[in-house]
Amino acid sequence: MVVVAIGVEKVAQGWVSSFNKNNTFSEAVIVSFNHEKINLKTLIEIHLLTHKSTSNHSMRTKYRSAIYYFSLEQKENSLKIIENLQLNFDAKIITKILEFKNFKPSTKEFQNYYKKNPQKPFCEKYIHPKLQFLLENYSSFVLKK
User: Fold this and answer.
1) Comparing C-alpha atoms, which of 18, 37, 16, 35 is closest to residue 26?
2) Nearest Cα to Cα of residue 29 among 4, 66, 1, 54
3) Taking a C-beta distance cutoff of 8 angstroms, is the pair 14, 2 a contact?
4) 130 CB contacts (<8 Å, ≥6 apart)?
5) Do the Cβ atoms of 17 and 102 come closer than 8 Å?
6) How many separate domains does the chain show?
7) Does some domain include residue 130?
8) Between 7 and which of 38, 80, 119, 137 could a Cys-Cys bridge form, CB atoms 3.0 to 4.6 Å apart?
9) φ, ψ for residue 82 (rounded to 5)?
10) CA atoms of 66 and 80, how far apart (whole Å)
11) Residue 50 near residue 135 (C-beta atoms within 8 A)
12) How far is CA 35 from CA 84, 88, 99, 143, in A?
């Protein structure tokens, strides 16, 4: 199953870092999007609902729960969006809003991993349920191919 998000123009997967204590690289994606087709609130909401945005587990350095901003306007909008979305969560959202500094793409073997390996156990256990969630809850923003 291939799911295409309407308005998402490019997704780069790899490793991202910020500043100070968040200067180590953490696995992430950079999403370039057309805000007239999908807005930042929807992208953040999907992000929060498809990973453990309220769980502060031992692997948070490698798998940081964060949204990286490229402008002060994105930072302010992201903070307001998370504050408003917090009302829909029982536990506290731990996702941080961090300034983008560096990006390193994943190695070729991990690029488009799901598309190349949909039957692998990791894909069936983690990625496929997230795609199903998108289809069931955000169908106006996705196309199934």
Assistant:
1) 16
2) 66
3) no
4) 50
5) yes
6) 1
7) no
8) 38
9) -65, -40
10) 15
11) no
12) 19, 23, 20, 17
Look at the alpha carbons of 119, 121, 126, 129 in this order and tell me if their dihedral is positive or negative: positive
Q: Can you read off the two tokens belonging to residue 7?
A: 């308005």
The amino acid that residue 54 corresponds to is: T
- Quick check: is 85 in a domain? yes
pLDDT band for position 60 (50/70/90)? Answer: confident
Mean pLDDT of 61-74: 90
Polymer length of the chain: 145
Q: How far, in Å, CA of 143 to CA of 3, rounded?
A: 6
Residue found by looking up tokens 């349920």 in the block = 129
- The answer to whether residue 121 sits within a structural domain is no
Q: Which domain holds residue 58?
A: 3-111
Residue 1 near residue 144 (C-beta atoms within 8 A): yes
Is 23 domain-assigned?
yes
The CATH number of whichever domain residue 86 belongs to comes to 3.30.1060.10
Of all residues in the chain, the percent with pLDDT exceeding 90 is 65
Helix/strand/coil for 29? strand
Cα-flanking dihedrals φ and ψ of residue 42, to 5°?
-65, -45
